[in-house]
Amino acid sequence: MLHFLGPFLILLVDTLFFDLRELPIVLDALTIFIFVSLLRRFQLRILYVRHDRISEIDFETRESASKRLVWNFSSLAWTGIAILSFLFWYSRWFYSQGIPDSPDALAKLKPFLHLGIVLFIFDQVGATKPFIKWWFGLKLTPLRLGLLFYLLLSIFGGILLLLPFNQLKNSHLSLIDAFFTSVSALTVTGLTTVSVSQTFSKSGLVVILALIQLGGIGIVAFSLTAATVFKRRFSLGHTKLGQQLYGNPEVGEVSVFLWKLLVTFFALEIIGAAFLYTLFPEGISDRFFHAVFHSISAFCNAGFSSFDDSLNFSGGIPFKICICILLVAGGFGFPALFEFFQWNRIKNWFVGRQKSQQRASNLSENFRLTLFVSLALWISGALLIFLGEVASGARGVLSSLGDGLFYTFSSRTAGFNTTPVADLSSFSQTIIGMLMFIGGGAVSAAGGIKTSTLGVLVMSVRSFLKGHQKAKFGRSEIPHEVIIRSLAVLLTYLAVLFFAVILLRFTEPMALGTLVFESISALSTVGLSAGQTSEFSPIGKLILCFLMLAGRFGILAMISVGIGNGQRESYRLPPGRFFIG
Predict the structure, then answer these.
(1) Residues ≥6 apart with Cβ < 8 Å to 558
(2) What is the pLDDT of residues 345-400, one digit of tens each?
(3) Is-contact 101 27, C-beta < 8 A?
(4) Which of 151, 257, 276, 341 is deepest in the core (most CB within 10 A)?
(5) SS3 state of residue 200
(6) Which of 72, 84, 164, 69 is nearest to 119 (CA)?
(7) Three-state DSSP class for 385?
């Protein structure tokens, strides 16, 4: 019992008596027992790898080599990291004179104390017999494995961002802010609780950039490609994971799709960095690093910027146009993007070398639907934001036009801004919220319910109102399964958003509109903020982290992680009578 109560007692003392001069010494006295316990546990796990705990479990999955490896490696890793965290906390005794309680030392090292305590709590929970039975009895489905990758890398990225050399000299980063930034980068969201350019050093920005790249392409794409490199082929489990996460129905096309995905990412990012390097306004130092950073951030739809005010600087219109092109390319949807690069089909469709019916058949239904919905959103979004800003009278016509054109691209995919969102009119913020809700194309770096989902639902309603028995788009019928999945995505998104806002109403003393805006931005992995993300409580920040992970991993996929894989029914029930409307 003392092992569980000790860490919570330390956190309580640290929270209630933070301003006491003697507090660091009190914390040292309280944590020394935890530190000694961790050293003993680490030694025992190296020697025995906790065979005594596992041997007490008697069921078939006990001999699972993969689970045993993950479990043993994780227990050793978090115990070792906890020990290093406490050593960082104690290190202030060696470079401080007298009592090591200087504000700068405490602010820099306090996150390591919190990290060590949190990892110790994880260690205690992981050593319990119920947890071991649950872990070895858990079926590792492909989606659960993918979510595990995201969680572990989010924690690891947060730990890297806490290291002193990844932060600027006079900056202070808390544990929850480091984890929040890591999750935001890995989910290519862009929401931040601290100023990225004023908090992280160049090495810290490189860590963020690596997380953005992994999150943009997808951790699973990297792992599956690595599997082909070392094994020369995909296993059935790898293929199933790629099908579920990337929506590719053909088993033989998964490997081809992932290789095309990697080549497209790196090629367009290199081209984008080259153009951005030449288009930067004069007077910006370290142009090469900023060009690479913004090219990756824009194409991955992350919205992170290495500048203080994002893209809110004078001049640089060609630079911002290039950013918008990268945003569109990364958020259009990779299946549609691959089809776009088939120049002969596109050229024949536009030039008109074939008859109209034949031209329409050159492009797939997914491409045409994504293109039409995207064009409608780009035009209507720019027009509505422009009218909203002109009506407010806060800015001139040209500035309002620039805001409308830029935000109609940025609000659906990334979190870049040229004017702070808080300075826009309430009408424009509402339009931006609606665009964030819809998001980008399916199987892309963007979030939201996706343009194809909106298009399928609109075409279904249109077909119903016209009296058609089947939903149609053009000369194609929309399958019933696609309509059901679109409804499931929409209703699940709204349900998750509703419960998240309800929870935030209890934890955050903010206006309802602000909470809804921030929640949509997190769940749609956009990253635009009304300027109050840093004011969220630790619990509120954790709620936003969950929303970002759910939005990036996929809401339906997150639910499938909890309920497992559904089984196809081999029977049908008799139809019932229901009254609607």
Answers:
(1) 147, 549, 550
(2) 555 555 554 444 454 456 778 888 888 999 999 999 999 999 988 888 777 788 88
(3) no
(4) 276
(5) strand
(6) 84
(7) helix
